[in-house]
Amino acid sequence: MDQFFFYMFSAVILVMALLCVTAKNAVHSAIFLIGTLLGVAGLYLHLGAEFLAGVQVILYVGGIMVLFLFVIMLVNIDQTLKEAIFSGQWKLGLIGVALLGVELVWFVAKGTGLPEKPETHAAAPAAAQLGNVQQVGDVLFQSYLLPFEIASILLLVAMVGAVVMAKKRI
Amino acid sequence: MSYLDQTLHLFPETVLAVAGTLIMVLSPTVKNARWLGRIALFALVLALFGSHVSYHHGEYMGSAFDGLVTNDAFAILFRQLFIIVAALAVLSSFDYLKREGIETGEYYALILFSVVGQGLMACSTDLVMIFIGLEISSISTYILTGYRRHDARGIEAALKYFLLGSFATGFLLYGIALVYGATGSTNLAAIRAAIPQANGPLVAMGAALMFVGMAFKVSGAPFQVWTPDVYQGAPTPVTAFMSAAPKAAAFAMFLRVFLTGLTPAAGYFWLLWGCAVLSMFVGNLGALMQSNIKRMLAYSSIAHAGYVLAAFTTRSAMGGAAAIFYLAVYSVTNVGAFLVVAHLAGKDESTVAISDYRGLGKRHPVLAACFTIFLLSLLGVPLTGGFFGKFYIVTSAVAAGLPGLAIITMINSAIGAYYYLRVVVTMYMEDAESPAATPAVPASGTLVLIFTVIGVFALGVFPTMVLEWASQAADILK
Fold first, then answer.
1. Mean pLDDT value across residues B44-51
2. Is A53 contained in some domain?
3. In Å, how far from its chain's centre is CA A67?
4. How confident is the model over B294-324, as pLDDT tens digits?
5. A170·B104 Cβ contact <8 A
6. Cα A64 to the chain's mean position, in Å?
7. A23: domain range?
8. Fewer CB within 10 Å: C terminus or N terminus of chain A?
């Protein structure tokens, strides 16, 4: 059952990603990208990371995709529909991808197996009793309180930067 | 420890972040942005004083916030360096911003925030914190690069820096993820302890990716391509700032992560060696062909990154101390040199070609003399700080059994002589056909010149003061 869901979600991700790259219409591409992101959220759920799955849906599918669609709205779609979707170097890219694929297969076949999961993960023992969200909250607001707070300065700087760059006159 | 005590470990960062926010709150009401610059200056002096007091009284030292940050000699030395560089940059910006008509509060706030990020990079012992510090510092610098918005070259530089920088950050983050996956921790000491039992190839892959990200940030070859364009396009006081502070911060993170965290992950010696040698040659040979003074100094900064990487390659306490000392010397000298360039740049940076410096020795003897001192220090002439900087690097390379690296460093110093002395010759031996008016140096600029010239000579005559401190700092990394 475990494996079935893993392969199902992986297939969804791969098919949607392929469609996203090959779709001619940018809006269709965006929709397929949503499919990919939802598939990734499914994988997270499958790993028992409900919080990550929720954040994936809310942030990526919700927030970031809306931004994507806004930008697509500003682009002249009728014009882009007439143009070729791949640049002239797609054959070169295909060769590169094929080489990478051969390399991966070779390593998986010849290698000693996948890396072992380290056993030192701090949160592992408590996993049974506490919910996933609760655990993330505990770690975030206790041992990682400082980075959590400092990130606000990062966001502030990014915001100031956006305003400085977008203002008509400094 | 209470949260207040722990926050006081980060006193300079706290002061600067509060001051930066205050400047932005005040900026709509304060008409003269110069006052906001003075607030920034005051905050920088306060932060410097605070970290000085805490170091000398031994208060609020050691680690805080569950080992995420630590206040040690290494962190304090770098922090004070960033703060001094930022103060000099703010002082040299006053006149420049007015001339370009872009004097606003956000500029000063961004410089303060950038220093906050750099301070965090120097004092963090956890990859998560280091990463956030790096991002704060980088994003502020991207924005400052594009601050002359009317100038196409400035915008191009900012966009290029932003895109390539984000890409490099991606490499770094991926490397952090792989190292975390292999060792189960983001704390540098824990990573070091876990590496012997961890999956070797995974750690090596993570270390290699982190190396790419960090080599980009210190502009080491072959990840240096952005440097000349960005240094040329940025407002010159910003170039002064970013050639010193973010670069030294990137080196601080580089040293801390690789010497403290990833030492057991063998095999990166040749990476460092190759990067150092390539940076020296690319920087020095590139600088030979430049006709623009900012681009020349940009290539020279690639070469200087190569020298510091050469000291880093020894992976000894002595090499670490040499690298830290060199960074201090290089920062002070470079800020001085770029201030002279900023002063002479003219409206819209129209006179930044080396040929514009013809006859400067006659037109403005003091400015020409100062510029000569900075160039000689970059070259590494005795009596200037640059001499001892290079001397310690070569000594540490020989002591570590790397005579080849020492010889390459010296060959490159010799190549450097050509383009540094060429500018000196241009200033004194050639006459300008139609000399441009040389404006008088304002009080703030004079202050920076005095400070940097004294700094260059003090480091060249009494190097032990800083060197001893640097050795202490380097010992901590082991």
1. 95
2. yes
3. 15
4. 999 999 999 999 999 999 998 888 999 999 9
5. yes
6. 11
7. 1-82
8. N
